[in-house]
Amino acid sequence: MFRSICTAVITALCVGFSGHLDPASAQDRRVPSSPAELRLSYAPIVQRVQPAVVNVYAAKVVQNRNPLLDDPIFRRFFGVPGQQQEQVQRSLGSGVIIDASGLVVTNVHVIEGADQVKVSLSDKREFEAEIVLKDPRSDLAVLRLKDTKEKFPALEFTNSDELMVGDVVMAIGNPFGVGQTVTHGIISALARTQVGITDYQFFIQTDAAINPGNSGGALVDMTGKLAGINTAIYSRSGGSQGIGFAIPANMVRVVVASAKSGGKAVKRPWLGAKLQAVTPEIAESLGLRSPTGALVASVVPNGPAAKAGLKSSDLITGIDGQTVDDPNAFDYRFATRPLGGTAQIDVQRGGKPAKLTVGLETAPDAGRNELVITARSPFQGAKVSTITPAVADELHLDADTEGVVITELGDDSPAANVGFQKGDIILAVNNQKIGKTGDLEKAAGASQRLWRITLVRGGQQINVTLGG
User: Fold this and answer.
1) What is the pLDDT of residue 5?
2) HEC string of 229-285?
3) Which of 160, 174, 305, 465 has the smallest number of CB atoms closer than 10 Å to its CB?
4) pLDDT at residue 266 tops 90
5) 346: annotated binding-site residue?
6) Residues that bind substrate, according to the entry (predicted)?
7) Ranges 42-46, 92-96, 233-237: which has the least confidence
8) Could you tell me the domains of the chain?
9) What is the CB-side half-sphere exposure of residue 219 using CA atoms within 13 A?
């Protein structure tokens, strides 16, 4: 295959070549007019940006248990103490200093579960870092360098909504741990919404080489400003194949603002409506030329959408003058709007255009009552929450969902081992309805030989019986 393609290209070139250059082609070529043109380089931008890109080292202590220790005969004959050996797992990624005081942005997956985080600067100095904020929904985390009062070089944000396909960008990070590395390419696509990495599916795609270890590093434009945080690659080999994804700077800006304000969680606007994608069949039924936009499936009573007049079957086509191609695009656009103001939403209703003004406010979160189940039971080690509108929004549940949901599972916990998953909604335990976390805590504390559990997973109700 490779040979036949090359032969075809050579033949085409030979047919088109007649001993002299085509006049149009000759006009496009010229000799450099000065020594300066021979020295065109990205070096000035790199020199300005590199000091603000750091390496992030995360360490996690895990228990390395020998399964033979569970055998009492083995312990009796060989005198092995029933202790677990500790092992340190290390991960390596990149980060970006975004504030001169020492605030660093990286990916959550770089520092997830870490007991210790260190940041190494481009001048080889190392600092301990504390985790200020983690936002799993965007896969962004903010760190602060400890025990330092100096001013650090920091990157400014560009407006990522102004980026265009074809813009030249550079990726800077620490791929494979070889040391700080710069690669360059172009923006290959914008608003990639079918990547499946985070809750907010809206990524910058680039062909700048990104490899393992680049996660959390900088994608910068030709002004030296931060265009995005490199987060993932599409690869069949584990290495770069020219398809990398970065979280846009405008989303990074929102997370950093929450960290600077002292928040432990990112506060975002809540629409109060469930959206669905427009399929070709739906588009045909609505008389649309193409299946684009976000269709309103349901509206929460008294929520911002309802107050604005949004109704089921409305088709959202834009927000604040920006086109909305699908629900993921709307979620990103809406989530990056500042709280306290309003957003103008373009809709199609009955084939006619309309504009609605939606207030930008957070989802009600009173009564979440999160807790970790500690009683010996199938739920031991599970972090659970009563479902509030905020919880439903975070986990993409219907706003009218009731019950208690598992929001987190401890590593190697009984709850994880029996098969519970994040997002499982517990409706009943031993025929007792579970309406709030206190109900589940009480049910888990009862001594039982059998546990009859009713839960909902992925919209499907499941009945499970477990031994005590």
Assistant:
1) 27
2) EEEEECCCCCCCCCCEEEEEHHHHHHHHHHHHCCCCCCCCCCCCEEEEECCHHHHHH
3) 465
4) no
5) no
6) 109, 139, 213-215
7) 233-237
8) 48-67+86-145 (2.40.10.10), 167-261 (2.40.10.10), 273-360 (2.30.42.10), 369-467 (2.30.42.10)
9) 34
Map residue 172 onto helix, strand or coil. Answer: strand
Q: In sequence order, what DSSP letters do the residues of 205-237 get, joined into one string?
A: EE-S---TT-TT-EEE-TTS-EEEEEEEE--SS
In angstroms, the Cα distances linking 440 to 19, 257, 465 are: 85, 36, 16
Residue 81: both structure tokens together: 């103490």
Is residue 211 marked as binding?
no
Is the model's pLDDT at 73 over the cut of 60? no
CA 326 to each of CA 19, 45, 353, 370: distance values in angstroms, whole numbers, following the listed order: 53, 36, 17, 33
Cβ 332 vs Cβ 308: under 8 Å: no
What is residue 364's DSSP assignment?
A: P
Contact 146, 130 (CB under 8 A): yes
Q: Looking at 121-130, 188-197, 292-301, 318-327, which range is the least confident one?
A: 188-197
Higher pLDDT, 348 or 31: 348
Residue with more model confidence, 126 or 114: 126
SS3 content of the chain, % helix, strand, coil (to 5): 25, 35, 45
Reading phi first (left if > 0) and then psi (alpha if -120 to 50, else beta), residue 186 is in beta
Q: Taking the model in full, what pTM does it have?
A: 0.77
Residue 213, annotated as binding a ligand: yes
Rounded-to-integer distance, Cα 119 and Cα 140, Å: 16
Q: How far apart (Å, rounded) are the C-alpha atoms in residues 399 and 255?
A: 24
Q: Which residues are catalytic?
A: 109, 139, 215
109 annotated ligand binder:
yes
Tokens coding 153: 């070089």
